[in-house]
Structures are given as structure tokens and as C-alpha cells.
Amino acid sequence: MDSYRFFPVAITAASAVGALGLVPVGLVEPVVVVDVVFSSVAVCVVVFFRDLQEVNPMAVVTRTMVANPVNLMFVFICIVGDFGGNIGTILSKLKMFLIVIIHHNFLFSAIQLIWVYLALSNYIMKVIITGATGMVGKGVLLVCLEDESVEKVLCIVRSSTGITHPKLKEVLHSDFFNLSPVEAELKGYDACFFCLGVTSLGLKEDQYRHLTYDLTLNFAAVVLAQNPGIQFNYVSGAGTDSTEKGRSMWARVKGKTENDLLKSGFKKAVMFRPGFIQPMRDIRSKTGWYQAMYNVLKVFYPLLKKMPKYVTDTDTLGRAMIRSVLKKDVKPVLESVDINELGVVSS
Predict the structure, then answer these.
(1) How far from 116 is each of 4, 183, 280, CA to CA, in Å?
(2) Which of 68, 81, 246, 257 has its Cβ near the most Cβ atoms within 10 Å?
């Protein structure tokens, strides 16, 4: 059982056992045990039917508190339902109800404080981004800086992104084959969004393999050594060849890169295979003819995005990157349609 599920259940169980133990010696009225049982059931139902890694923890608290009025109303009826008797009896019943309210709120407050703390530790992440000066990486970076789930962003870049933000830390480093000068900077992160890549145009296979496979696997190994529990997200591309035997050189190399990343020992590794990516927020590609193409297609993007199997955008890709960390049941390889489903704007 995950810690954020275990602790609320453990607290309710301990409270119930404690209350039951005090009944025989007259320190707790049986109706208090009724309150404990109802409180425990309400909490446990919420614990096991909500996934704190997918929702805002503060919303969970609100949902949990919904059980309070119903529970307290039931206890009130049990205790004060019959107002027969003298004033002493009535005061005694009201006193008992006051004790129940105090206990009830103490129990729920304790559970919620610990629950929210544990939920937040699962909900907030620190991420490393590579390729943040490129079109894809910059798009992912901008989304991360806006998202409340991301507490800190480290960008390892050859040149500055030109962005200043309280969450952002930039480390300038030119040689990604020798990370020893920046190795210590990579420690203490929850996820790595690897958005660095080069075009295969004009390159021979050994050159492209060196700049794609060798560079990526080297970076991944160093990051994993510094953060054994880290998730590694790799931006590949639609058409990547997982068999590593196809006719397309770039697809074979990308396929080899994906396959070996998935076998590298990461807690979770997710391969992103977007097709056409429309840059948002006036992001520009560093490749001139790419940018010219984007300028032309921007007019048609409202129509293009109706083809989610082939088209996505930098904002959607960024949201999908973040949610792939928060969600548990994410496939290891995401095509464009999967990216669009995962990164859809929340209603």
C-alpha cells in the first residue's frame, strides 16, 4: 500500500482501537465508537477510491469533509434524539455530543494534515529538461514553469534560454558526452524530460547514432546514477522503428535509443512519439526551413488539430510530459493520439 493511502487508514484504525479500549473503563461512551467507525469508513472510502497522484490534494480535503455533516447529524440524532428527562439529562447528552464533535474534528484534522502533506509530496515534482532552447524543449519548459505540479526546473543547455523565472535554474554546459562538471547539479530530481535532438539530414548513420543514441544513453546513465527513482521521458518521433531493422536510418537509430532506455533500469521511462508538432506561444524553430513550414501551416492548424493521430502542439506535449509522471498507468510508448489524450486541457 502506498504511503499516502497507508497513513490515513492507520490513523483511523488506531483511533478506533483506542476508543474501543476505553469503553469498558467508562472513559468513552459507546456512541463515540460509532463516530469513530463512521469517520473511519468515510475516510477509507475516499482513500481507496481517489488517486491523490492525479488530483489536486486540496480538492481531496474538500471531498473528505463532505462526510462530516452526514456523520455528525447521525450522531446528533443518536445522542440528543430523545429530549425526554430533566435538564441534567439534556445537558449530559449535549456534553456527550460536544465530546464527539471535538473527537470527530480532531480525527479528521489529523488525517487531513498528514494526508495532504503526503499527497503534496507525490503531487509536486522537480524536473530536468534538456533541449530547452529548441522548439520542443522550450515548449515543455514554458508549460512546466506555469504548472503548479512542478516545483523546480533545471535546464542543462549549451546556451541560455533567455527566460527568467523563480522555478528555473539554468546550467550552461557544452559537452553532453562529459557531464562530470555538472554531475552534482543533476541530483535531487523526480523526472527528466529529454527534448534534445538533431535532424538526420546530411548525416551518415554513425554520425547520427553518435549524436542521438550515444549522447542520450550517456546522459540517461548519469541522471539515473544521481537519482535512482527518477522517471525518464524521451522525445522520439512518429515512425520510430522498434525492430531496429527497417530501411529508414533515423527510425532505426531512434528505435535502438528507445529500446535501450526502456531497459536502462529507470523506475519509469516513457517514449514520446509525436508526429507534426505545432509550436505555440510564438516559439520559433532554430531550423530555418522548419520555421518557414510552421509559418505556412499555422493558418491551417485549427483544421490540422482535428487529426490527433498525426498532429499535436508544444503545450499539449508539455502537459502530457507532466501528467505521465503523475499518473501510474501510462504506456511506455506514446504516439500522437496518446499524447493528445494525456495532455488535453483539463475542464
Answers:
(1) 8, 33, 34
(2) 257
DSSP state of 165: -
- Domain ranges for the chain, please list them: 3-122, 125-342
Position of cell 546530411?
202
Q: Take residue 45 and report the three cell numbers written for it.
A: 472510502
278: which 3 cell numbers?
505545432
- The 10 Å Cβ neighbour count of residue 130 is 26
Tell me the three cell numbers of residue 90.
439534556
Which tens digit of pLDDT belongs to each residue from 294-314? 677 676 777 777 788 999 999
* Cβ neighbourhood burial of 279 (10 Å; 0-12, 13-18, 19+): buried
Give 277's Cβ-side CA count (13 Å radius).
29
DSSP 199-213: --TT--HHHHHIIII
Q: Read off the C-alpha cell for 184.
A: 552534482
16: helix, strand or coil: helix
Note the pLDDT tens digit of each residue in 111-152: 555 555 555 555 678 999 999 999 999 999 999 999 988 989
CA distance linking residue 276 with residue 312, whole number of Å: 6
> What are φ and ψ of residue 202, in 5° steps?
80, 0
All three cell numbers of 229, joined, read 527513482
Nearest to 144 by CA among 190, 111, 179, 100: 190
Most distant CA pair in the chain, distance? 97
- E strand segments, 133-230: 150-157, 168-172, 191-194
Beta bridge partners of 153: 127, 168
Task: Tell me what pLDDT residue 93 has.
Answer: 57
Alpha-carbon span 16 to 343, nearest angstrom: 42
pTM of the entire predicted model: 0.69
CA gap 19, 16 in Å, rounded: 5
Cβ–Cβ < 8 Å for 194, 154 = no
The class level of CATH for 125-342 reads: alpha beta
Cα(first)–Cα(last) distance of the chain, in Å? 30
